[in-house]
Amino acid sequence: MRKVSEIVEFCQGLCEDLTFAAAREWKDAEPGRKVVGYMPVYVPRELIHAGGMLPLGILGGGDNLEVIHGDAYYQSYICRIPRSTVELAVTKRLDFVDGMLFPSICDVIRNLSGMWKMMFPEVYTRYFDVPQNYEDEIGGKYYQHELMELKQGLEGVCGRKIGDDDIRRSIDLYNENRRLVNAVYDFRTKEPWKAPSWEVYLLIRAGMVLPVEAHSQLIEEYLDAAEAEDRPMRDNCRIILQGSFCEQPPLNLIKSIELAGCYIVDDDYMLVTRWLLKDVPSDGDPIRNLAQAFIKHSTETAAKYEPDGARKGKYLIDAVRTRAAEGVIFAAPSFCDPALLDRPMLANALARENISYISFKYAENSGQMQPIREQAGTFADTIKLWGEA
Amino acid sequence: MSTATERDEVVKEPSMLKQKEMIADNYDRLTRAKELGLKVSSTYVPGNLNELVMCFDMLNNLPEINAIQNGMRKKSGGLIMDAEKMGHSEDVCTYVKADIGNMAKGAIAPNGKPMPVPDLLLLSYTGCFTFMKWFELLRDQYGCRTVMLHVPYEGDGKITQNMRDYVVKQIKEEVIPTFEEVSGIKFDIDRLRENLRKSAEAEDNFVWVLESAKNRPSPIDAYFGGVFYIGPIFTAFRGTQDAVDYYAILRKEIEGRLAAGEGPVTPEGDMTEEKYRLVVEGPPNWTSFRDFWKMFYDEGAVVVASTYTKVGGVYDYDGFRHDPDRPLESLADYCLGCYTNRNLPTRVDMIEGYIDQYQADGFLVNSIKSCNSFSAGQLMMMREVEKRTGKPAAFIETDLVDPRYFSPANVKNRLESYFQMIEQKRRGGGPPARAA
Ligand code: SF4
Ligand code: SF4
């Protein structure tokens, strides 16, 4: 059995590898294999997998990528993830990617889908729209059709029909993966000192590159190793990190928050892994099942419309309760419309429940951690001293 | 989109007076809605369902227009800072903050009276993600009834039957029943058909006016002047007899200008010499609208086509008209086809077409800090258009209603060097350079 540190080192290697060697290796292992990239916040990876393809999460370039060309594509007042993603593409780091999906999350990613079409006409590129209407007969029907269209598009990439049984098998595998990801989150909630957030982050992030089967195995291995390891419990407060669902913070930022005295007991990183809140049934019509799961049982985030004003922010308050958190840190990328427009409403909802919060912004290449450490440290001290900030 | 007040100090043409009257009357009715027993719905310009709203005898209040009004009256800067003090990020759309700041101050209409609290928020989510959050924010403040019309994005550059069906179903099963409930009036499809017929009539004349810019000299400025021409068709008047009359009057005026070989009207009188013909992408700046315009007409630059005048509906590119024979479907197609709901390749094709058909000398992007919907991708669009047309392009950056992001000296410098570049190009001076 590998030790926690070995597993984490492996995950960090995957996360920092801007050549995507693991995905390339997977592709080269058998002729005819295809890779389909996707951006945050949600795509039904089951359909890609069902076509025998590798879904590859593209989350920007992080803090190690020097953006040279990407800046020529974006004004200074646009967040960083699209420019570093363009950088990855124009420097041919994504030249092995056969398809790209751009989910409906904001106008930046939306417009990037059109740029991709112009820049890489040979790549299957789809803006993946999802309904903001959650009625079976309206949004449900629309979404089912969209999934069918996506399936047809993906069939064009993998060169074969994607059968219902293929999708059912993939649904099972992703159900298992989601259960395991949730198990990691639950484990961290219970004993956060045994599963530091930067480790959990890297572990889940590995699932953006690895095939789902390998990722599930890795999670199991980590859970066993982390359980077995004796780690000291610190006098940290427990917080939820909110707003980081798209452009990723540097790893150092996550570490800094923890070093400043905060256990992160929930977050919204890589929501694609936990988007669906229940298992998707694998019997019956698989497309309908995926659509139903989205309509009825998907997570809340800024990219979704909340039809009921009274429920706005409730999911965050519920998370505070179930994770026994003592406060919320809003950490959003600079210029991130969805996160920053949502924040005042979520903050109001928290204030009504007397839940403390602080806010700051970051970029994926933020270098200066001192101010964040100080802010998080003061927040932690205040919570510990007064029970509220 | 605004009143004609900025211009009528100098020239008062009948169309301007007509529009001014229409707007004043509309604000009067809005601010007296309670007294008149009228219900009010708030909705956005792109994807607005004015013809449908009128079927329920309700008034349409448009938050962007209020933000523009405050921008032109130089009040938006303070309102935006108020909203930022209330916890709204400096990074997000300034329309939203100007609106929220205005609400905190009692939502005063341009006639000095308070706006009514809407009875219904009709969230037409077309072409811009921010709209969705904006209405969640308004709902948070007003606590009033909200109905959402989600309009999918034309990711592949076309409207699929699935998209159309989805929008129609929402209109039928959610929007109409909600309006019936709030207004107490039963939906009458014949009334809708009649409104749509009037829309189409006005739209024909509107397109004629836009296309008059194909002439040399152009009798209109399709950006700075264009924002006045789109006023009625983009806002609370589409589908009314007033709008039909307005566009008929406007067309007649432009026909007159054409016959006389006149250029566009500017705040300082007629433009005499047309030196540069431009296509412009992006919304204008409102806080220094007049100064901004002056930088163009002083140099003899006229905008012959603009994408901003397509943001509340594209009527020229593929000939869309509201259609009384397909009432709900044509409402759906209208929403789906608004400019920023079209993908980037389509936007580039559209601009390329304008440059060719309107014999433009160049392409200018006014990139708006607030607006990711327009701005994300514009640098690439610019290069692509330049590559395809061989015309010089330039890029300037301003904001809609935040005066902090309008730097007159910078913009002026850039424009001046851009005009020189066009001159150079005319004289055969090398490949297209860029003033950005
Ligand atoms: S960081 Fe925010 S604004 Fe930027 S692409 Fe992601 S969701 Fe959109
Ligand atoms: S982001 Fe752009 S389109 Fe959206 S509300 Fe603001 S100005 Fe309008």
What is the CA-atom radius of gyration of chain B, in angstroms?
A: 21 Å
- Give the averaged pLDDT of chain B, no decimals: 94
Distance between the termini of chain A: 43 Å
What is the CATH class of the domain at 30-150 in chain A? Alpha Beta
Write the CATH fold name of the domain at 30-150 in chain A.
Rossmann fold
Low-confidence stretches of chain B: 1-9
Quickly count the helices of chain B.
17
Structural class of chain A: alpha/beta
CATH architecture annotation of the domain at 30-150 in chain A: 3-Layer(aba) Sandwich
Strand order of the largest sheet of chain B: 8-7-9-10-11
Major beta-sheet overview of chain A: 4 strands, parallel
Helix content of chain B: 40-55%
| Number of strand segments of chain B | 11
Low-confidence parts of chain A lasting 5 or more residues at pLDDT below 50?
Answer: none
Which features characterize this protein?
heterodimer, A: 389 residues, alpha/beta, Rossmann fold, four-stranded parallel sheet, 8 strands, globular, B: 436 residues, five-stranded parallel sheet, 17 helices, 11 strands, 49% helix, disordered N terminus, binds iron/sulfur cluster
Short description:
The complex is a heterodimer of chains A (about 400) and B (about 425). By secondary structure, chain A is an alpha/beta fold.
Structure report:
The complex is a heterodimer of chains A (389) and B (436). With 389 residues, chain A is α/β, with parallel strands linked by helices. Chain A has a domain at 30-150: Rossmann fold (3-Layer(aba) Sandwich). Chain A is 49% helix and 11% strand. Chain A is built from 14 helices and 8 strands. Chain A has helices spanning 4-16, 21-28, 45-50, 81-90, 107-119, 136-158, 164-190, 197-206, 212-228, 251-259, 286-296, 314-322, 337-352, 370-386, and strands at 35-38, 54-57, 99-103, 124-128, 237-242, 262-266, 327-333, 356-362. In chain A, strand 7, helix 13 and strand 8 form a beta-alpha-beta unit. Chain B has one domain (14-426). Chain B has helices at residues 14-31, 33-36, 50-54, 63-72, 76-85, 94-104, 130-142, 161-183, 189-211, 226-234, 241-259, 289-297, 327-337, 344-357, 372-375, 378-389, 408-426, and strands spanning 39-43, 58-61, 120-125, 145-150, 265-266, 269-270, 276-281, 301-306, 362-368, 393-398, 434-435. In chain B, the strands form 3 sheets. A 5-stranded parallel sheet of chain B has the order 8-7-9-10-11, sandwiched between helices. A 4-stranded parallel sheet of chain B has the order 2-1-3-4, with helices on both faces. Chain B has a two-stranded antiparallel sheet with strand order 5-6. The longest helix of chain B has 23 residues, at 161-183. The two termini of chain B are 28 Å apart. The chains are: A alpha/beta (389), B alpha/beta (436). The interface between A and B is large, with 59 and 56 residues. Residues 79, 81-82, 105-106, 108-109, 246-247, 333, 336-339 of chain A line the site of one iron/sulfur cluster.
